[in-house]
Amino acid sequence: MRYSVSFLSFLLALNLLGAVSTSVGAQGKPKAGPKKNRKTSSRSVLSEEQRKALADEATTEGDLAFDQERYADAVTAYTKAIQYNPTDIFTFINRGKAYVELGEIEKAIADFSEAIRQEPDYGDGYFQRAQAFSKKADREKELADYNEAIRLAPDPVEAIVERGKLYQDLGRNDEALKNFNLAIQVNRKDAQGYDARAFYYYVNDEPRKALVDAEQAVRLDPEEAWYVFHRGAIYADLHEEDKAIADFTKAIQLNPTFTLALMDRANAYSAKGDSAKAISDFTEAIRVDPKFGPAFISRGLSYWRRGEFDPAITDFNEAIRLSPRDGAAYLLRGQAYRSKGDKERAIADFRKVIEIDTGFPAKKAREYLSDLGVQ
Prior knowledge:
The protein has helices at 42-45, 48-67, 71-84, 89-102, 105-118, 123-135, 139-152, 157-169, 173-186, 191-203, 207-220, 225-237, 241-254, 259-271, 275-288, 293-305, 309-322, 327-340, 343-356, 360-371, and strands at residues 22-24, 30-32. By secondary structure, it is an all-alpha fold. Strands 1-2 form a two-stranded antiparallel ribbon.
């Protein structure tokens, strides 16, 4: 959550640079330096009230840039704000969040740490630093900061949920579930705990339990696209495609650039045998995120199933360009070449899979080569 939209005033143009240069002469009187250098620092003549006003303007400029996903501009603006008011911890936290978005995690951690140094009892500083540590996969420090955030925050539900997700990532499922249960106990009107527990049950093959929690999360917060999406994923797992499609559609309405919802709705259409609608959704996912390789693979697979081998190969080519060591993309392109009767290229792709992959794609590639009489 950020705190504070206008551009920085041009006020500083009136007073820029320099300081009075003096030296003490033999009589102890200040001796002026060259007249051309006698300028006064804008910073030194600004009152505390003026500095606060300029800091506030820079902060709102940073907030606008952040909201527009111009994270480098946000960093620049927040840095200005800090220069004029270096004791506002919220500006350090906001700049830290912008650094996270830019992938500059060490700088983010430094900003969150400065906020904590200034206000050691402010829980959100620890929470944000824990999130940054998660980007580095520094699990020990991440966990320690979540513990502090939970201890200090007036409403610790989000930190409890994130700690539960961390335990889940670490394979400590019992502790993960305890955290999700605790989040619900702390605030039964907060959807986060129900959504997290629903996802926990979903990945642990308990879809009916997952559905109960997912429905409660949507009931509590029906405008949160992720909660609606998660319920749709559970319906899809239960082979209730129409309900899944309805939820994915609602999630897309709430967030038109929700790539995963587009992908999963396309998969639900495929499960219903509607390849045209599936291809349409995969195409929209590609428009939203042209660098999302799985969308090309999925659309190519849909084309291949329709017997449209050339557009399928084109999509697999793009998936390979985006991720040159993706064994699945080579495997599927090899199958498309094989379906076209281009045995030589099919064999080359299957051999490439074995070269770069050791999992399921490589196993299937060996089977396909054997089918083609190739050792």
